[in-house]
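thread from #wetlab-drylab

HS: before we spend reagent money on co-crystallization trials with uridine-5'-diphosphate-xylopyranose, can we at least see a predicted complex? here's what I'd submit
DV: go for it
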Amino acid sequence: MALKITVIGTGYLGATHAAAMAELGFEVLGLDVVPEKIELLASGRVPMYEPGLEELLAKHVAGIEGSSGRLRFTSSWEEVGAFGDVHFVCVNTPQKHGEYACDMSYVDAAFTSLAGVVREGALVVGKSTVPVGSAERLAALLPEGVELAWNPEFLREGFAVQDTLRPDRIVVGVRRHGERAEKTLREVYAVPVGEGSPFVVTDFPTAELVKTAANSFLATKISFINAMAEVCEAAGGDVAKLAEAIGHDDRIGAKFLRAGIGFGGGCLPKDIRAFMARAGELGADQALTFLREIDSINMRRRGQMVEMAREALGGSTFLGRRVAVLGATFKPDSDDVRDSPALNVAGQIHLQGGQVTVYDPKGMENARRLFPTLGYADSALEAVRGADVVLHLTEWREFRELDPAELAKVVASPVVLDGRNALDGERWRAAGWTYRAMGRPRA
Ligand code: UDX
């Protein structure tokens, strides 16, 4: 008989995983402790913008016309316990307020609730990003006869559906003699997901570390190129050309070498900090002191963007000056504004007296909630109207497709600063703009 699957926690990770499992043909029950979320998901809608996810949900959520009916949602732990052969725990692990360590309270609460209801013989699978050592501790919370596996998730926001249905690797941490857990997960991830994806089986600590190591490596790549951008700025070099040239070396690779205002979001910043905190607890903090530098190079970029804007305005004060900000989310194709470099820059300029007007294709609602005192416009054109300087801070396709000649007609001063190295500088210059990008020479 086909395995029945539950997914606990329905954020980016959980909602996507639940829909993907239904797409693979499994009966799926999703649980969240927030009733509004359950209500929304049960009607086939998602509480965030993620390309393709709503379509996938609508294809499977029970009660929607024409759906497979394989996906349901509940807030009842009893129902989850009675239903599931395999339980995926997908709750979030945010950074603790004022500390580097991550907050494990949601994971702990999920395991405690699940432990009270889970059937003997079921498999519990942790997917949340946790400090190394957590799986061993959490396994002890589960009753006799219930196995645990650790199966980190590498999905990117904006590509969540595609990354879940076609992962570039599947990593499974099991206990010694955990062959049954491995066999069950191989069954879950059998074709088409597993097709062609390397399936790496290892122990708990390695599986947990794979995730934090991967995110640390990505953060390091970005901060490396941003450090090179700082040197290019001092020496008059061009970081975009430099990235292109070193990226041709297969050992380095061209991806994740875009210099700009740096990384943000709900994962990279908090994951490297939690990793440092955990290494400290383990007495291995020296091994990760470089991550402190990665973090500070990253945070410095935001201030450097503010200074670039100040310089473009004549070098002294923002008081009374109009600054248009294109982009609010931490990356394009998402409405997520958590730790967004774009909003951070906008906020700093606002605090220094600038009149900031922000426009973002999908992040307006979240941005308004987080920074209600900033100015907002309903389109890029409206945002730049009357602006003394325009900052391009999130690289949405919509911004690359703007007509610089049209925008030039409505600004007070045609100066654009590209904080993502993503606009076609020549095109903007040809339309009469002063175009400047981080880490690149002035024309
Ligand atoms: C990341 C990891 O990529 C993913 O594997 C993991 O599961 C979760 O964390 P995500 O947070 O969705 O995913 O975003 P990602 O695409 O990694 O981008 C993170 C940040 O880095 C964004 O703010 C982006 O703008 C920035 N970035 C990315 C750069 O500044 N330069 C680059 O070259 C690439």
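DV: The mean pLDDT is 96.
HS: ok that's useful, forwarding to the group
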